[in-house]
């Protein structure tokens, strides 16, 4: 019995402790003061930009609205901040406006935590389609991402040239390469350097596997679940899925990539290529010897349609707020071109709106511009499902498992099994 | 009568802080978990939870991942108990003899216990790194093949067994050491007179007299072994191919990532009952032995 006590103690101690903390900080706001919770720290460039935006909002709306920002830094796996949101739910002490991660939109909307904000957002046409896709649940806009993210194929120019590859023939966002061409390139590199050609991050057993690998399935024309999000049967285990996952398996089987990459292998010249995002550009600033370029995601040979990962944190309005107008005005202000540009440049991330792309494209590196262009053209949001955590985890495990090509040589069988697990989550 | 009452009152007052803490952090949460186990409590909609009877339990017994996690933990326990307890006993015997520098070894063997499990896990993650880790470098240097310690479904759990035993053995070593030092010297002297050799000495004197210590160690090690969560969480995230997912880890995932508090609570109840039965059987067995 000690065991039961320990477990449940562990489970609920966290809830009780955080609940106590949540209660204290809720009230105390004036009539027109909107409270805002964000998941970042005020010491990060992102947090500083947010504080500046709030200061500007307070100046411009003096006498009508004001806003107060509270920083609740999240821990690695999204703990901290989300624990506090969960605790605030049980004590009914949510702020008026909050940030949430893209994949949480559906769960929060379905649970009635956040309210539709269609009526308050004035620049909806300017926002990138992936931002609208990510924030929309059951045809209503619930949340607006304030930046974007994406993944491209980073390549070491010197290593490719030494392997006899003419850099001018490499793919562009307008003319991407398909999987076969990409595997040919990988083979050349493997033959030259006798090690994996690309670090795809297959050792990262987390959201990355969903984020970075689902675009292959979409490029193939497949889908994880049905349009209405009720079933995975006939989607996650259909012919398109088999093709997409077979591509991943082949990359490992042929030795083009590895499930145990050396840490910072691309940065130190071990691998010639790497899946990376805007954060990789920041990392590579510390490795000035590596001369690199960025090419777009490889596409399915059947469709040749470029699809790339995307996703970001977003602003949303709490359904419990009594200050809808002020809260709506705040979100609209924070997602205006000016505010978005500020946060995009401060945080070195991809822009979330067309107008912001124009603002920043001359101020960032050509490599960043490849990611920006790719994102604008081909970004695909992750599925907006209330049961996203389960669906994503099954997807992650499928990617992770399919890489074990000896144990899972029958991709169809693996997908059938995983589809069953997904079905359970969708019920 | 009056003094007795007063004594009773005093006793309850002394008990009060402990009872209050136990009640708040153990009894009440445990009762809440048992109640939630019969509801569809979803973390984001606490007000809409409904009583759903045994539905959670039925689903759990059909959940392949939960079954897999039970198999994994049994594998872990079966390997970790003999290795960890054996290592602890060996170390205790080593440092029991008065010798120069004993304090140093005592501290050295005990130090992993003091370190946080997360730190230990990250440390071993570096040591076990397939291509640059110290251990694989050693292996390849002496002509052996580099091993996929944590990335092979066959080896991952055994690697975690080894790391856990290494980390935990120091604690049991101290308890064994106390047990060893409680064995009166006169018994050994008597043995000497009878002319026993070292091995007989160990088998017929040391081991039987260590029995009470061993029982305590077996029970506490068993219970803590079932609680395994941090090492797989940090080192393998339950993979590869679910080979290192443990019940507590799966409960944590279901409750906090999937937000299914009801389902997770039901698993804690089932798992608690299983542990309860095992502990009961174990204490019965060891009691009979003693007689």
TrEMBL record, chain A:
Annotated signal sequence range: 1-19
Gene3D superfamilies in alphabetical order: Periplasmic binding protein-like II
Keyword Signal among UniProt keywords: yes
Pfam families: SBP_bac_8 (PF13416)
InterPro entries, per database record: Bact_solute-bd_prot1, SBP
Keywords per UniProt: Cell membrane, Lipoprotein, Membrane, Palmitate, Signal
Keyword match Iron: no
Name the UniProt record assigns to this protein: Fructooligosaccharide transport system substrate-binding protein
Native organism: Gracilibacillus ureilyticus
TrEMBL record, chain B:
One Pfam family per UniProt: BPD_transp_1
Main location: membrane
Membrane topology type: Multi-pass membrane protein
Domain ABC transmembrane type-1: 70-282
Entries under CDD domains matching the protein: TM_PBP2
InterPro entries per the UniProt record, alphabetical: ABC_transporter_permease, MetI-like, MetI-like_sf
Gene Ontology cellular component annotations, sorted alphabetically: plasma membrane
Keyword Nucleotidyltransferase: no
Subcellular localization(s) per the UniProt record: Cell membrane
PANTHER family: ABC TRANSPORTER PERMEASE PROTEIN, INNER MEMBRANE ABC TRANSPORTER PERMEASE PROTEIN YCJO
Similarity section: Belongs to the binding-protein-dependent transport system permease family.
Designated name of the protein: Carbohydrate ABC transporter membrane protein 1, CUT1 family (TC 3.A.1.1.-)
């Amino acid at each position: 019995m000690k065991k039961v006590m320990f477990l449940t103690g562990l489970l609920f101690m966290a809830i009780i402790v955080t609940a106590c903390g949540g209660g204290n900080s809720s009230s105390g706001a004036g009539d027109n003061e909107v409270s805002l919770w964000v998941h970042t720290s005020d010491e990060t460039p992102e947090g500083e930009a947010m504080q500046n935006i709030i200061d500007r909002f307070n100046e411009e709306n003096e006498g009508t609205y004001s806003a107060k920002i509270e920083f609740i830094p999240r821990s690695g796996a999204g703990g901290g901040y989300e624990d506090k949101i969960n605790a605030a739910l049980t004590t009914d002490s949510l702020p008026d406006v909050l940030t949430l991660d893209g994949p949480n939109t559906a769960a929060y909307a379905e649970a009635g935590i956040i309210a539709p904000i269609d009526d308050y957002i004035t620049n909806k046409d300017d926002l990138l389609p992936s931002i609208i896709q990510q924030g929309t649940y059951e045809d209503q806009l619930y949340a607006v991402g304030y930046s974007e993210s994406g993944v491209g194929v980073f390549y070491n120019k010197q290593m490719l040239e030494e392997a006899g590859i003419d850099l001018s023939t490499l793919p562009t966002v307008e003319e991407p390469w398909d999987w076969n061409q990409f595997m040919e390139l990988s083979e050349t590199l493997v033959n030259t350097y006798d090690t994996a050609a690309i670090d795809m991050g297959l050792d990262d057993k987390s959201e990355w596997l969903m984020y970075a690998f689902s675009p292959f399935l979409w490029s193939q024309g497949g889908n994880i679940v049905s349009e209405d999000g009720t079933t995975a049967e006939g989607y996650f285990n259909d012919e398109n899925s088999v093709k997409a996952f077979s591509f991943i398996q082949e990359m490992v089987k042929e030795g083009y990539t590895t499930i145990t990459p050396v840490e910072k292998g691309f940065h130190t010249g071990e691998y010639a290529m790497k899946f990376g995002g805007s954060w990789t550009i920041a990392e590579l600033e510390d490795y000035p010897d590596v001369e690199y370029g960025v090419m777009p995601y490889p596409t399915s040979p059947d469709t040749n349609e470029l699809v790339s990962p995307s996703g970001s944190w977003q602003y949303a309005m709490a359904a419990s707020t009594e200050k809808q107008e002020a809260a709506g005005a705040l979100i609209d202000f924070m997602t205006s071109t000016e505010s978005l540009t500020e946060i995009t440049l401060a945080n070195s991330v991809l822009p979330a709106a067309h107008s912001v792309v124009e603002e920043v494209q001359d101020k960032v590196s050509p490599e960043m511009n490849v990611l920006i262009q790719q994102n604008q053209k081909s970004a695909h949001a992750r599925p907006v499902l209330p049961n996203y955590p389960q669906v994503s985890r099954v997807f992650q495990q499928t990617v992770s498992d399919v890489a074990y090509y000896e144990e899972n040589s029958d991709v169809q069988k693996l997908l059938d099994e995983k589809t069953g697990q997904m079905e359970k989550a969708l019920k | 009568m009056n003094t007795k009452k007063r004594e009773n009152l005093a006793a309850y007052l002394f008990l009060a802080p402990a009872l209050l803490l136990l009640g708040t952090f153990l009894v009440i949460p445990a009762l809440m978990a048992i109640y939630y186990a019969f509801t569809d409590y979803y973390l984001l909609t606490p007000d809409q939870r409904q009583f759903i009877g045994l539905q959670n339990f039925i689903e759990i017994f059909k959940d392949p991942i939960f079954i897999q996690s039970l198999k994994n933990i049994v594998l872990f326990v079966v390997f970790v108990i003999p290795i960890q307890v054996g290592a602890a006993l060996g170390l205790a015997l080593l440092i029991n003899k008065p010798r120069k520098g004993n304090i140093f070894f005592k501290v050295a063997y005990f130090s992993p216990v003091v370190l946080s499990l997360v730190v230990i896990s990250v440390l071993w993650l570096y040591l076990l790194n397939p291509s640059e880790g110290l251990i694989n470098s050693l292996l390849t240097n002496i002509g052996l093949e580099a091993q996929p310690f944590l990335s092979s479904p066959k080896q991952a759990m055994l690697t975690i067994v080894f790391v856990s035993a290494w980390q935990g053995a120091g604690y049991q070593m101290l308890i064994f050491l106390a047990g060893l030092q409680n064995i009166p010297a006169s018994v050994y002297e008597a043995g000497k007179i009878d002319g026993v050799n070292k091995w007989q000495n160990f088998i017929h004197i040391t081991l039987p007299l260590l029995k009470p210590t061993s029982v305590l160690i077996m029970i506490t090690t068993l219970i803590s072994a079932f609680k395994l969560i941090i090492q797989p969480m940090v080192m393998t995230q339950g993979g590869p191919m679910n080979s290192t997912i443990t019940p507590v880890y799966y409960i944590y995932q279901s409750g906090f990532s999937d937000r299914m508090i009801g389902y997770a609570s039901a698993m804690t109840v089932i798992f608690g009952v299983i542990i309860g039965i095992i502990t009961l059987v174990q204490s019965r067995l060891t009691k009979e032995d003693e007689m």
